[in-house]
């Protein structure tokens, strides 16, 4: 849950940077603004979902405030300096998230963590069946993280080849 508060930052930062660039240069973004903002929204939904399962303590809230202040600015600086490096970094972080959720799933399957009913917000957002449980939620969240990993590595690869993001359309078709 704590990591989701960090994970929802890069997409919003990168989306905002590309949004402003699009306005400044009078050019389209190739769908990347929408794709990145959607990533941020998706990560925020991960947080909203896991909040239903466990509540943050006061010192965890304090930590999030401190980490967000630092991470937002650090990621913005990194993205302005090198989108290629920034997306690569996120790609690796997302891979770590896939590992973490795989372990979470293993603990759920082994009965170390109670497989409680899925929160209503999760059933709504991922259109899960009515009887869905936490296990189902973790599976769809892990699939999201794998998608973020691929999208961010792809964004970084494009920069490796010397193309601006806008020249290669985002994996989902927006403008
Ligand atoms: Fe996430
Ligand atoms: Fe993620």
TrEMBL record:
| Predominant place of localization | membrane
Which keywords, in A-to-Z order, does the entry hold? Electron transport, Iron, Membrane, Metal-binding, Oxidoreductase, Respiratory chain, Transmembrane, Transmembrane helix, Transport
Cofactor(s) it depends on: Fe cation
Q: Which GO terms describe its molecular function?
A: alternative oxidase activity; metal ion binding; superoxide-generating NADPH oxidase activity; ubiquinol:oxygen oxidoreductase activity
Specify the signal sequence span: none
User: Could you give the cofactor binding note from the entry?
Assistant: Binds 2 iron ions per subunit.
GO BP terms, alphabetized: alternative respiration
Task: Please give one Pfam family short name.
Answer: AOX
**InterPro entries xref list:** AOX, AOX_sf
Q: Write the protein's name.
A: Ubiquinol oxidase
Q: Which organism is it from?
A: Aegilops tauschii subsp. strangulata (Goatgrass)
């Amino acid at each position: 849950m704590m990591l989701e508060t960090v994970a929802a930052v890069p997409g919003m930062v990168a989306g905002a940077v590309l949004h402003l660039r699009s306005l400044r240069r009078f050019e389209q973004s190739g769908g990347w603004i929408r794709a990145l903002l959607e990533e941020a929204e998706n990560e925020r939904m991960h947080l909203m979902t896991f909040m239903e399962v466990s509540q943050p303590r006061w010192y965890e809230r304090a930590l999030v405030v401190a980490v967000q202040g630092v991470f937002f600015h650090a990621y913005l600086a990194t993205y302005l300096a090198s989108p290629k490096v920034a997306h690569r970094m996120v790609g690796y972080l997302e891979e770590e998230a896939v590992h973490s959720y795989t372990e979470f799933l293993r603990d759920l399957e082994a009965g170390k963590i109670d497989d409680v009913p899925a929160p209503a917000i999760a059933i709504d957002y991922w259109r899960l069946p009515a009887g869905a449980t936490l296990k189902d939620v973790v599976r769809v969240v892990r699939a999201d993280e794998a998608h973020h990993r691929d999208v961010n590595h792809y964004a970084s690869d494009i920069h490796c080849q010397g193309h601006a993001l806008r020249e290669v359309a985002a994996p989902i078709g927006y403008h």
